[in-house]
Structure formats: structure tokens, C-alpha cells
């Protein structure tokens, strides 16, 4: 396995699982919670009741999804058992254990039947997937026609007067604080993976090429993150 693969693998996240939530709050200046809420709003429209959360990690998105409406059930999937082990105490504390199921698995080979979900999402995870089109196609496969596939991902801000300061934060502050809090120098991988991620227009094109329709994206917090939303085509649209 190459060093790049190792840095983005489940094994890397196993090592930082106990500090992952703190890292997210500190490195995003607390903005990640608002970004997740926007993702939840996007994927739960039109009465969607059964949602798949790919790369669920410690369960933050799964919890937000289940809290959003009492009729929503969530399956959270992640390749890192250590990350998944952090989720149950949070889920129990929120009183949501009956509506959230956790599954170890690979986003490029989802262990679910076709059309099993009303919607699917992935937050801060598509960047680490070795085959992004395959992951998107799998999320489409398990989502019913007309359902939403939503992707929330970090980016290097490029527009607006605050963009230079935001880029400084991503390029220099994030890797240093990440390595300090996590105790793992590999967390410097975060900055390089953000810089290498496709532009918003290019990633939206990847989603369209995977087969999604009505694809669009929203720039958030001066471009520090983007929310991408597409729809699984119905037979008429296909």
C-alpha cells in the first residue's frame, strides 16, 4: 500500500479515532457543525425516511439525521472500527440507538441491496476514497430513483477577501494543530488531500459522469467547504 493510500485509509483513522471529534471542532473553528446541518437538510427532503451515511466516522452526521425527524432511520457505514466504536456512547446519549445502525464496510462495495435507501450522503469522506466514481455509483445503486445523493467536502478557499487567510489556515495551521492534537504526524495528510481535491465544477462533473442528474453545489464559509447534491435518475430521466 502506498503512503498516500495509508494516510487516507481506515487504519489512519483508527489511530486518531479518540481525538477525531476534537480535531474537527478545532480545525474547522466549529463551522463543521453548521455544514453538517446543511447536508442533513439536503438529503432528508421529500419525506426521505431511510438514509445511508457513508464514512459515518464517530456518528455526527448519523445523529443529526436521526434528530432531524422522528421518522428517519439511519445506517452509518465506515471502514474504521475504531471510529465506529466512538459512536455508540454518543448515539445512546442522544436516545437514538433504536434508529441508528452502524456497519463496518467499504464505500466502493456497499453491502446493501439496490434501492435500499431513500437517500445517501458522505461528509468529509469522499476525499479519502480511492475510487470516487465507484463510490458515487454505489451510493446511487443503493438509493431509490428520485432519491438524493449528497456530498460534503472540504476545500481550499479561492474567492473573497478572506480567502488568503482561509488558505493560510488550511495549508499551515491545520496540519500543525492536527499533528499536535492527534499525536500523529500523518494528520498532515489532511492539507495535501484538500489541496488535491478537484475544483467544485470538476467534482460536480464527476457526479454527473457517475450518472447523477440535477447536480449542483453550494459554496460554504468562503469556500472552506462545498455541499454537492445530485439526484438518482428515474427511468424517464435515465
Please tell me about this protein's structure.
The structure is a single chain. A hairpin with a 4-residue loop joins strand 6 (213-220) and strand 7 (225-231). This protein has a single domain, classed as Rossmann fold (3-Layer(aba) Sandwich), CATH 3.40.50. The protein has a seven-stranded mixed beta sheet with strand order 3-2-1-4-5-7-6, sandwiched between helices. The chain is globular and about 45 Å long. Helix content is 43%, strand content 21%. The protein is α/β, with parallel strands linked by helices and 238 residues long. The protein starts with a helix and ends in a 7-residue tail after the last strand.
List keywords for this structure.
disordered N terminus; about 240 residues; alpha/beta; single chain; Rossmann fold; globular; 7-stranded mixed sheet; about 20% strand; 7 strands
Number of domains: 1
Strand order of the largest sheet: 3-2-1-4-5-7-6
Can you tell me the residue ranges where pLDDT is under 50 for at least 5 consecutive residues?
1-9
Q: Shape from CA axes? A: globular
Count of alpha and pi helical runs: 10
Largest sheet: 7 strands, mixed
What is the beta-strand fraction?
Answer: 15-25%
The CATH architecture comes to 3-Layer(aba) Sandwich
Derived from helix and strand composition plus strand pairing, the structural class reads alpha/beta
> What is the residue-mean pLDDT, rounded to a whole number?
83
Number of E-state strands: 7
Provide the succession of SSEs.
HHHHEHEHEEHEHHHEE
At CATH level 3, the topology is: Rossmann fold
> Portion of residues in helices?
40-55%
Radius of gyration, Cα only, in angstroms? Answer: 17 Å
Instruction: Tell me the distance between the termini.
Output: 37 Å
Query: What is the CATH homology-level superfamily?
Result: Vaccinia Virus protein VP39
CATH class: Alpha Beta
Amino acid at each position: 500500500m502506498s503512503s498516500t493510500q495509508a494516510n487516507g485509509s481506515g487504519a489512519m483513522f483508527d489511530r486518531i479515532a479518540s481525538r477525531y471529534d476534537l480535531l474537527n471542532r478545532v480545525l474547522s473553528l466549529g463551522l463543521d457543525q453548521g455544514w453538517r446541518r446543511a447536508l442533513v437538510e439536503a438529503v432528508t427532503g421529500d419525506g426521505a425516511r431511510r438514509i445511508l451515511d457513508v464514512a459515518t466516522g464517530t456518528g455526527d452526521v448519523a445523529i443529526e439525521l436521526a434528530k432531524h425527524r422522528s421518522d428517519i432511520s439511519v445506517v452509518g457505514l465506515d471502514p474504521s472500527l475504531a471510529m465506529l466504536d466512538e459512536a455508540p456512547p454518543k448515539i445512546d446519549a442522544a436516545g437514538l440507538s433504536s434508529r441508528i445502525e452502524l456497519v463496518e464496510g467499504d464505500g466502493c462495495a456497499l453491502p446493501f441491496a439496490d434501492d435500499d435507501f431513500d437517500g445517501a450522503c458522505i461528509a468529509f469522506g469522499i476525499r479519502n476514497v480511492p475510487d470516487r466514481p465507484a463510490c458515487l455509483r454505489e451510493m446511487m445503486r443503493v438509493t431509490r430513483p428520485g432519491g438524493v445523493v449528497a456530498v460534503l467536502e472540504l476545500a481550499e478557499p479561492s474567492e473573497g477577501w478572506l480567502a488568503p487567510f482561509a488558505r493560510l489556515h488550511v495549508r499551515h495551521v491545520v496540519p500543525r494543530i492536527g499533528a499536535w492534537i492527534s499525536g500523529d504526524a500523518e494528520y498532515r495528510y489532511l492539507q495535501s488531500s484538500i489541496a488535491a481535491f478537484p475544483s467544485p465544477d470538476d467534482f460536480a462533473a464527476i457526479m454527473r459522469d457517475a450518472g447523477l442528474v440535477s447536480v449542483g453545489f453550494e459554496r460554504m464559509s468562503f469556500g472552506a467547504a462545498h455541499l454537492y447534491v445530485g439526484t438518482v435518475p428515474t427511468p424517464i430521466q435515465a
